[in-house]
Amino acid sequence: SLPLLDERLVPAQLGWRLAFGLGATLAIAVLFVRTALPESPRWLLMHGRRTEADEITAAIERRIERGAKTPLAPADGCITIDPARVQTGLRAVAHAMLTRYPSRTLVSLALMISQAFLYNAIFFTQALVLATFFGVPSSVVGLYIIPFSIGNLLGPLILGRLFDTLGRRPMIFATYALSGVLLMITGLLFVRGLLDATTITVAWSIVFFFASAGASSAYLTVSEIFPLESRAMAIAIVYCAGTLAGGALAPTLFGILIATRSPVAIFHGYLLGAAAMIGAAIVELAVGVEAARRMLEEVAPPLGTSEVS
After folding, report:
1. Are the C-beta atoms of 152 and 212 separated by less than 8 Å?
2. Which residue blocks in 69-165 are alpha helix, DSSP H?
3. How does pLDDT run across 91-141, given as a tens digit for each residue?
């Protein structure tokens, strides 16, 4: 974005369009990357493709055994799924989310909406805040995104293992609540004029070090806590709801707040984002499901289950 947004190199009306188009280029690359991903053995079994499921599972086991240099323990337990009872339509998904697991749906929505609001509130308006309150030129604002992005990357890399060892619930609670508290502190320092362009970027990076780890686990959690047949559609529905409520509302609201050129107005916006994250943390701690190191069928039995042993 640095050369594209430099008006000395590219006209302004063209540069931002080209920068925006970079995102589409990355999205196209995903179409090719996804072809290298193995299909879910569970999904294959559900659709009667047992041979393919066995081959993929065996390949995964061989790779793990080579890395660990020790054979895996024999599989224990058995679950029987009746294909005649498998339901994958919207009615089955709605039944699973609203009737069978309403509290899990509440947790999922709380986690996704709050993180979407926080991310879009800060990330989509970062350049506006830097330019409006600190006079950072648009041609160099990309430099300030680099530490922000590093914080987003390091959070899941460093803290990710703890979500498997300490557990999903305590870690999601801790990361969501901590990011909310840190955002409140950032807003307080900002409204008192104690931050400049560099220090507020550092503060944002620290906030999202924890928020990114929590949000990454939230995506994983939503995909774990619903039955096999409805898992993909459930996370799609929750993601869409989160993007609509958090993704569409946050940039609009913060755009209005920034237009006032009032640090107090921005502070109130930060308080709202912090309250959303802390509220989601409380919901997770109260009714969240611990899925770490548990079989998915144990967390949520498939709808087509006829026998478990």
Report:
1. yes
2. 90-94, 102-123, 126-134, 141-159, 162-165
3. 888 888 999 999 999 999 999 999 999 988 888 888 889 999 999 987 788
Helix/strand/coil percent split, the chain, to 5? 75, 0, 25
Instruction: Give the tokens for residue 243.
Output: 């993007």
Q: In this structure, are residues 144 and 201 in contact, taking their beta carbons and an 8 Å threshold?
A: yes
Map tokens 């931050």 to a residue: 195
- Residue 96's Cβ-count burial label (10 Å; 0-12, 13-18, 19+) is buried
Question: To which H or E segment does residue 264 belong?
Answer: helix 263-287
DSSP state of 138: T
For residue 171, the one-letter residue type is M
pLDDT of residue 92: 84
Report the candidate in 109, 114, 139, 141 with the shortest Cα–Cα distance to residue 125. Answer: 141
Q: Decide: 306 and 81 in contact? Cβ < 8 Å.
A: yes
Distances (CA, A) of 73 to 57, 58, 207: 14, 13, 41
Kindly state the DSSP code that residue 247 receives in the 8-state scheme.
I
CA atoms within a 13 Å half-sphere pointing along the CA-CB vector of 199: 9
Tell me the torsion sign for CA atoms 259, 127, 120, 284.
Answer: negative
